[in-house]
Amino acid sequence: FEQQLQQIQYLQKQNYSDSLTGLGNRRIFLQQIQSNLQEGDDFVPGYLILVAIDGLDILNKHHGYTAGDDMLKEMGEKLTKVAQPYKSVQLMRISGSQFGIIVHYMEQKQFEIFIEQLNSNLQNYFSEQPLCKVYLAAVGLKQNESSKDLLSRADQNLGEARNKSNHLSFHLPSEQRNILVTFPFKVWSDNYPGFG
């Protein structure tokens, strides 16, 4: 029985994790977004952050795919380090050069500090990477919003971030400005990488 349980856990990790970074993958990202936007009492206030690396294709072309893979691994490590003090942050690699971060149970002021710190750390790292740039966009989760609309708003902010000198853009809904949720948030940290 123990061996079967270990095999099930292994398969779950394979199904929901990115093999390069060890973070959650796009599949779990989309599932988490969908479940977080549920109607009624199941809605959990929070934020979505998209992190995009531009120029990864150029890095791969000039220095090989190993250099690109190394950068993505290091990016995963940096995101994990910044998020580590926060129990309600979920990290996922959602495409070749994009990461998704879902944040819950954080007051807006604390979230603004978190995203500014994240942006500062990533911009410092990428200042040493002449071929690549990193951009961050954040939006607040809205109850009953479709995942398509949420991702569209986040993509729009990502476009705005690419035109800003600090490479960061976020627009948070006014109804989230003073939310403080104090009950615990259970994440699947034991079974899924990049959680908690």
Provide a count of the helices. Answer: 6
Low-confidence runs (pLDDT<50, min 5 residues)? 175-196
Number of strands: 5
Strand order of the largest sheet: 2-3-1-4-5
Given helix and strand content, the structural type is alpha+beta
Major sheet size, sense and barrel closure: 5 strands, mixed
Q: What is the overall shape?
A: globular
Question: What share of the residues lie within helices?
Answer: 40-55%
**CA radius of gyration:** 17 Å
Global mean pLDDT? 83
Strand content: 15-25%
Output the helix-strand order: HHEHHEEHEHE
Q: Tell me the distance between the termini.
A: 27 Å
Could you explain the architecture of this structure?
By secondary structure, the chain is of the alpha+beta class. It has 6 helices and 5 strands. The protein has helices at residues 2-16, 26-36, 56-63, 65-83, 108-126, 147-161; strands spanning 46-54, 89-95, 98-104, 133-140, 168-171. A 5-stranded mixed β-sheet has the order 2-3-1-4-5, with helices on both faces. Strand 4 (133-140), helix 6 and strand 5 form a beta-alpha-beta unit. The protein starts with a helix and ends in a 25-residue tail after the last strand.
